[in-house]
């Protein structure tokens, strides 16, 4: 957000906090509106003006300055502002009657979906897509929006093959007919975009042609007409079908961005058949059509190249598994086997289930038949993709070391297991390290991919693997996440909680029961507040980095618990 272009009267350095503050205020006001109704509507209207200005400015920036270095940042700010506008209107009760697309404008809910995709935040786009009601739209706008939502959710197989045709016998005025034709052309462009994302040749090019046609046809100069009517036409004079033109401007940028991030556009790794690689990516695109920005960076850095190992220290939920799956695909297309190490039997079973879904034609096995029991003892060979714990792998190396010679990729999930919990007293970390060292001997030509969200020295680990294997090992530590978080907690005024604690102590002195009396527990009421950090973590003591908001207009019950003499205040759900 701080890299977005400057906007007068807005401090970009603190714009992330402003947007988060608006988000939590709207969430708080939603609760208050449900409880008390109209008296809080004015507070919501105060937020709308600022948000609308942000949304309009940054969306205009995106629409008019294609391929600008700040485009993604501007798109994210605009998307965030549009999302907050939509959520505020939901609270005000006006969103349900606003169609997402009109002949004059793209409304905030749909604009937010498109802008999040342009900004590279598909998870946020997916979340917003779920809020859109297409039943308010007529054709052809409904088909267009339905196609856009399917693209946003990554459900490309749900996109219809052919757009509806114009009814040639319907009598309409020329303006309405023109707008309908523009919507249908954009619908055809979105269908072509979906085809391109599925790996169908010519899809992206046809999509761009359709979008450019609409941009050209929906806006045109009228200076000559004004001159003929003796009207001053100094400067630019343009007539525009505003809704189709606005949509086409966003779709133009969306098409460029999605092609850059499409799974099917990943280059062929060295030594692989281009046809087989394309077929594998087309199959993957049915489930995961897009690369996130950290995936794209990893691919560009050579992650998929044979002979390159890597240590991936992305945060939880940042797509480490997707990269591992891509590496598995390239390894299997080379005819080599994959060994996947997971630290627990539960994770072994989960990974097995996931990989069987992704690699339905491969021989995948984990040999588990019950907790801690295995179906074989002396394997002559491993399945195409073998999943096991490091302890199981270490045991197999002891009596079937030759089984690992055909392994071309070793994925070690949750590799922080290598780090001992206590010095010299962690058998699991010792077994994991012995397993890894053994594999470096028995699978000499294998690439290693180590995954963890809990290591801070990936560069050191990558350097060690490179020195042990004699090949490249890439450290990957991008902190980016596909989701946005606002951390908060429920708090109470100190004087209110102290008052309740005093009542508990007073009851303790005047009663003889072992635990707090029922009457006392039923009469501990307090006003709650929500305390939010406007940053990703609780790292500052600046008051402007936090927000304290009421979350209800009435007191809520707490309770008391414990045995005499240690009674204490606690939640009522205890």
Give an overview in words.
This protein is an alpha/beta fold and 574 residues long. It has 19 helices and 17 strands. The chain has a seven-stranded parallel sheet with strand order 5-8-4-9-10-3-11. Strands 12-14-15 form a three-stranded antiparallel sheet. The radius of gyration is 29 Å and the shape is flat. The mean pLDDT is 83.
Number of helices: 19
Category by helix and strand content: alpha/beta
Radius of gyration: 29 Å
Beta percentage is: 5-15%
Number of strands: 17
- Outline the biggest β-sheet: 7 strands, parallel
Which segments are poorly predicted (pLDDT under 50) over 5 or more consecutive residues? none
For the largest beta sheet, what order do the strands appear in spatially? 5-8-4-9-10-3-11
Task: State the shape.
Answer: flat
pLDDT averaged residue by residue: 83
Distance between the termini: 41 Å
Helix-residue proportion = 40-55%
Summarize the structure.
About 45% of the residues lie in helices and about 10% in strands. With about 575 residues, it is of the alpha/beta class. The radius of gyration is 29 Å and the shape is flat.
Keywords:
three-stranded antiparallel sheet; seven-stranded parallel sheet; 47% helix; 574 residues; alpha/beta
């Amino acid at each position: 957000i701080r890299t977005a272009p400057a906007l007068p009267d807005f401090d970009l350095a603190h714009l992330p906090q402003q947007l988060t503050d608006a988000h939590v205020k709207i969430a708080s006001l939603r609760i208050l509106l449900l409880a008390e109704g109209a008296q809080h509507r004015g507070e919501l209207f105060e937020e709308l003006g600022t948000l609308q200005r942000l949304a309009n400015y940054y969306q205009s920036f995106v629409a008019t300055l294609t391929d600008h270095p700040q485009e993604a940042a501007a798109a994210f700010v605009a998307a965030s502002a549009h999302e907050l506008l939509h959520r505020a209107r939901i609270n005000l009760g006006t969103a349900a009657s606003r169609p997402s697309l009109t002949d004059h404008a793209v409304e905030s809910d749909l604009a937010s979906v498109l802008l999040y995709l342009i900004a590279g935040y598909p998870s946020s786009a997916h979340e917003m897509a779920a809020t859109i009601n297409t039943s308010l739209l007529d054709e052809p706008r409904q088909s267009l929006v339905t196609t856009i939502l399917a693209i946003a959710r990554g459900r490309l197989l749900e996109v219809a093959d052919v757009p509806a045709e114009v009814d040639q016998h319907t009598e309409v005025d020329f303006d309405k007919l023109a707008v309908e034709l523009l919507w249908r052309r954009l619908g055809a462009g979105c269908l072509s975009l979906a085809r391109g994302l599925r790996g169908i040749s010519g899809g992206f090019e046809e999509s761009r042609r359709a979008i450019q046609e609409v941009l050209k046809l929906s806006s045109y100069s009228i200076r000559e007409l004004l001159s003929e009517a003796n009207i001053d036409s100094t400067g630019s004079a343009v007539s525009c079908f505003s809704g189709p033109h606005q949509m086409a401007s966003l779709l133009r940028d969306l098409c460029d961005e999605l092609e850059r991030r499409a799974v099917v556009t990943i280059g062929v790794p060295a030594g692989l058949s281009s046809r087989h690689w394309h077929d594998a990516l087309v199959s993957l695109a049915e489930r995961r059509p897009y690369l996130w920005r950290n995936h794209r960076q990893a691919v560009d850095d050579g992650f998929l190249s044979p002979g390159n190992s890597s240590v991936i220290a992305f945060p939880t939920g940042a797509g480490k598994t997707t990269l591992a799956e891509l590496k598995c695909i390239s390894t299997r297309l080379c005819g080599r086997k994959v060994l996947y190490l997971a630290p627990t039997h539960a994770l072994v079973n989960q990974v097995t289930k996931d990989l069987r879904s992704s690699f339905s034609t491969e021989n995948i096995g984990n040999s588990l038949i019950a907790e801690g029991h295995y179906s074989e003892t002396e394997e002559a060979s491993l399945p195409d993709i073998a999943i096991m714990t490091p302890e199981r792998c270490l045991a197999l190396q002891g009596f079937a070391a030759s089984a690992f010679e055909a392994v071309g990729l070793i994925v070690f999930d949750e590799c922080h297991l290598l780090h001992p919990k206590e010095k010299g007293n962690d058998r699991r970390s010792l077994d994991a390290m012995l397993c890894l060292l053994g594999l470096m001997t028995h699978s000499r030509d294998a690439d290693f991919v180590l995954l963890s969200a809990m290591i801070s020295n990936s560069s050191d680990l990558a350097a060690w693997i490179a020195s042990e294997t004699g090949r490249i090992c890439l450290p990957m530590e991008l902190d980016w996440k596909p989701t946005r978080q606002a951390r908060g907690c429920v708090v109470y005024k100190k004087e209110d909680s102290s008052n309740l604690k005093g009542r508990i102590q007073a009851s303790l002195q005047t009663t003889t029961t072992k635990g707090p009396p029922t009457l006392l527990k039923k009469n501990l009421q307090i006003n709650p507040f929500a305390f939010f950090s406007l940053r990703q973590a609780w790292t500052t003591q600046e008051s402007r980095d936090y927000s304290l908001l009421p979350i209800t207009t009435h007191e809520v019950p707490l309770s008391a618990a414990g045995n005499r003499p240690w009674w204490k205040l606690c939640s009522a759900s205890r």
